[in-house]
Specification:
heterodimer, A: 49% helix, globular, B: alpha/beta
Chain lengths: 162, 275
């Protein structure tokens, strides 16, 4: 495991995103890794990520493994000490996003949410299927969109400069 | 006891899988569940990608949806495991007074306030509670289906937040499927991931997880997959190579309650379903 400290301020930065952490309870028992479907197929090594977060041994601008978590919550369910590993990954991803390391798909999803209030696009096929199935047009009214914009501008998503 | 629910449709179902909305509505109407669409609905915020970019945006957007339901004293009924997890986790986080105050500070700017009154329930749990009513309405039993049950991660985990006592060996879906005459041939003791969470980021990893799962179902002799999650549905219907048909929970119910495959749009499945 790479133990060299890369970012001594990593934990501080994470606590600025979310102050209520129980990370230090981690005993490195490895139950999280034992149930991780990503790890068993060569994805994220979750126990190691938790340790490296504590050590500041992650370069969030380059660490691709954090985007290989499927957020299945198996680790969080299994953890005896309520460390909530999958949420720690979410927080590290928040920092990575702030520093520009965002997978293209999520970047597009975020832009779509800002523009339309939804995370999936309404396409011609959407319209066709909905009318064939006799369903409404799922129009989002202007007031709702104004509220979305307000929330985005007042929170982290608005500060990512997307 | 006929409280009206706010039906929260999410994003994926109304935009890409409207036929799942149709079958859900069919089932709700048949079972005389009162519902209205949640007014002012937006994305929940999607808990895998979007929340990973900005947790506070997720929290405030989710609190906004919950506050709308609170205002009219309604509970939220969801059709999507992702929405369920997103809203439930938000509700849990908002138990902290410090977090709630910060969120309400933003919500005040749009004239809203979160208090924590509203409950969130998934269609599976609603039906599980009304099994007797369901049994009385069934018109088609024993369809020759040999189903593999796939609850999806976020229906059952984390148990701290869901309505399940344990996240392993959960039987709600299997019991409903069996009572409608399907033969349950595969169950997941520790509900498996379908690989959907990385399907747009790491396709290789995603297919490995998916293929392994389908192989297990096939080995068990399944001829159909049953899932209550639209994200898992997309994985099975669009990205799976073996060609095993998948039914979303409400489609399975609607067929048993007498819907024709035409009216609930089974033709829109990419992996064809023959019933």
């Amino acid at each position: 495991m790479k133990k060299s400290v890369f970012d001594p301020m990593l934990l501080t930065a994470i606590r600025e995103v979310w102050s209520d952490l129980t990370l230090w309870e981690c005993h490195q028992c490895g139950q999280c890794s034992a149930v991780c479907p990503s790890l068993s197929h060569g994805g994220i090594r979750i126990r190691e990520i938790i340790e490296r977060v504590m050590l500041g041994a992650i370069n969030v601008e380059k660490e691709d493994a954090i985007w290989s978590c499927m957020m299945c919550q198996s680790c969080t369910e299994r953890c005896q000490l309520d460390v909530n590993p999958s949420f720690i990954v979410t927080l590290v991803r928040n920092l990575a996003s702030e520093r520009g390391h965002i997978p293209k798909h999520y970047l597009e999803e975020a832009r779509l949410f800002i523009r339309t209030g939804l995370s999936f696009p309404k396409t011609g096929l959407t319209k066709k299927m909905r009318s064939e199935m006799k369903l409404d047009d799922i129009d989002i009214d202007q007031k709702t969109m104004d509220e979305v914009k307000f929330i985005v501008n007042r929170t982290r998503l608005g500060r990512l400069g997307l | 006891m006929s409280r009206t629910f706010y039906l929260f449709r999410g994003c994926l179902i109304p935009t890409r899988l409207p036929f799942l909305e149709r079958s859900s509505i069919f089932v709700l109407d048949k079972m005389k569940v009162h519902y209205e669409p949640l007014p002012g609905a937006t994305c929940c915020v999607e808990p895998i990608g979007l929340r990973s970019l900005a947790v506070d945006t997720w929290l405030v957007a989710a609190a906004r949806l919950l506050s709308i339901a609170e205002e009219n004293d309604r509970d939220i009924l969801t059709l999507c495991n992702g929405c369920l997890m997103s809203l439930k986790e938000a509700k849990h986080a908002l138990k902290s007074q410090k977090i709630r105050d910060r969120v309400n500070e933003v919500l005040a700017g749009i004239g809203r306030r979160y208090t924590g009154k509203t409950e969130i329930i998934h269609l599976v749990d609603l039906i599980a509670k009304r099994r007797t009513a369901l049994d009385e309405l069934v018109v088609k039993r024993g369809t020759g289906m040999r189903v593999a049950i796939h609850p999806g991660c976020h229906l059952v985990r984390p148990t701290k937040l869901t309505s399940y006592d344990q996240s392993y060996y959960t039987r709600a879906l299997s019991e409903i499927a069996s009572s409608l005459g399907a033969e349950v041939v595969a169950e997941e003791d520790w509900p498996n991931c379908c690989g959907g969470g990385v399907s747009n980021v790491n396709e290789v990893l995603s297919s490995k997880v998916l293929d392994e799962l389908i192989d297990e179902f096939a080995t068990a002799g399944a001829n159909c997959i049953l899932t209550p999650c639209p994200f898992c549905f997309v994985q099975f219907d669009l990205r799976q190579k073996r060609g095993m048909p998948v039914l979303y929970f409400s489609e399975f119910l609607a067929l048993a309650l007498g819907a024709s495959s035409e009216e609930i749009g089974l033709r829109y499945h990419k992996t064809k379903v023959v019933v």
